[in-house]
């Protein structure tokens, strides 16, 4: 029962024990991972097993929750929970002015040739008097096509979100990743017409991921670009598939993160601009999270009629990691919502501000306080 899993997580929250509760896109299963003590386990080389919560800057520590107890329950996705459709953050004139100045500075640097794209972000502090579990129930109800999570560690903090973007999935030596960029609002569920700026921005991400990964993996293929809907927003997506050598999954992760979709390109120049000019520290926003090297049992017998050999199974390690977008950090009586967007030479600062306002609704509409 979902309520029993929530009750267990609530008990952990009160006793200050780490946990994460999550559901994968379009799946009817809710998973709870519970760690039996409050130790902070740090990832060394991504050969570890557990639930990873990694920051934007991998020079900082990625946190691993140990799988001391794992509970899975059926999630009824047909249940509708009321959300606050008219909730919108109040426009902060000082925040807007500062963010637009930051975007203008980035565009000037692009024209100077320092980089061709940089992803700039901001955080919005809002009141939140609701119980965290009520907020998470709304997230689960509204964002069925996203990776929905509620993560807590007493020594790190409380985060939740609904992210549409896969960093990488692996099953044995096979992996899938994607480039996701460009944002448009959903209008009558019609697929959007993308602008040259949006197509260019997404292609930059695709080219970077492909060129960076091809030297780190055994094989890599890129699929056709298409549009994908996440909540009320549309994005451009290109999937890539390939294989990697044994014990080299960590190399692929480090090559992938951060992608130009959350940082920019050339990567190091864009990252340096972010560190020097963004007016806050991202910590885990635009990092990644998910299952790391969990065991999956596969049947070697593909002939269902041949039951004699059905007992012969192989165990492989699987990972499913998501970029930490559309997320917020929870505090006593408030939440901090994180939003951002890609800046290129074609960007218009006012429109980029409006895009972050639009993206903020993903989390703001599930909060109970206006």
TrEMBL record:
<dbReference type="Pfam" id="PF00425">
    <property type="entry name" value="Chorismate_bind"/>
</dbReference>
<protein>
    <submittedName>
        <fullName>Isochorismate synthase</fullName>
    </submittedName>
</protein>
<feature type="domain" description="Chorismate-utilising enzyme C-terminal">
    <location>
        <begin position="96"/>
        <end position="298"/>
    </location>
</feature>
<dbReference type="InterPro" id="IPR005801">
    <property type="entry name" value="ADC_synthase"/>
</dbReference>
<dbReference type="InterPro" id="IPR015890">
    <property type="entry name" value="Chorismate_C"/>
</dbReference>
<feature type="domain" description="Chorismate-utilising enzyme C-terminal">
    <location>
        <begin position="317"/>
        <end position="359"/>
    </location>
</feature>
């Amino acid at each position: 029962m979902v309520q029993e899993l929530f009750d267990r997580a609530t008990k952990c929250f009160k006793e200050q024990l780490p946990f994460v509760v999550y559901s994968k896109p379009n799946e009817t299963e809710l998973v709870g991972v519970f760690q039996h003590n409050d130790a902070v386990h740090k990832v060394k080389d991504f050969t570890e097993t557990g639930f990873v919560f990694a920051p934007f800057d991998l020079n900082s520590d990625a946190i691993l929750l140990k799988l001391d107890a794992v509970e899975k329950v059926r999630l009824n996705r047909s249940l509708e929970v009321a959300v606050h459709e008219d909730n919108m953050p109040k426009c902060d004139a000082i925040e807007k002015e500062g963010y637009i100045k930051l975007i203008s500075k980035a565009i000037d640097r692009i024209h100077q040739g320092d980089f061709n794209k940089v992803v700039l972000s901001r955080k919005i502090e809002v009141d939140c008097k609701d119980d965290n579990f009520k907020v998470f129930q709304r997230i689960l109800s509204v964002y069925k096509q996203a990776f929905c999570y509620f993560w807590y560690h007493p020594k790190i903090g409380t985060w939740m979100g609904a992210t549409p973007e896969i960093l990488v999935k692996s099953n044995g030596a096979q992996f899938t990743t994607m480039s996701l960029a460009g944002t448009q609002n959903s209008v009558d569920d019609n697929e959007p017409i993308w602008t040259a700026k949006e197509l260019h921005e997404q292609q930059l991400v695709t080219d970077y991921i492909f060129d960076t990964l091809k030297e780190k993996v055994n094989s890599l293929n890129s699929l056709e670009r298409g549009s994908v809907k996440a909540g009320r927003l549309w994005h451009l997506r290109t999937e890539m598939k390939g294989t990697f050598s044994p014990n080299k999954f960590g190399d692929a992760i480090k090559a992938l993160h951060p992608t130009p979709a959350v940082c920019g390109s050339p990567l190091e120049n864009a990252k340096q601009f972010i560190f020097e000019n963004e007016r806050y520290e991202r910590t885990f926003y635009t990092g990644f999270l998910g299952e790391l090297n969990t065991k999956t049992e596969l049947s070697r017998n593909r002939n269902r009629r041949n039951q004699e050999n059905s007992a012969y199974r192989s165990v492989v390690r699987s990972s499913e990691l998501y970029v930490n977008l559309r997320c917020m950090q929870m505090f006593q009586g408030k939440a901090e919502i994180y939003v951002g967007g890609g800046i290129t030479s074609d960007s218009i600062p006012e429109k980029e501000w409006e895009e972050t306002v639009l993206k903020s609704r993903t989390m703001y509409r599930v909060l109970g306080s206006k």
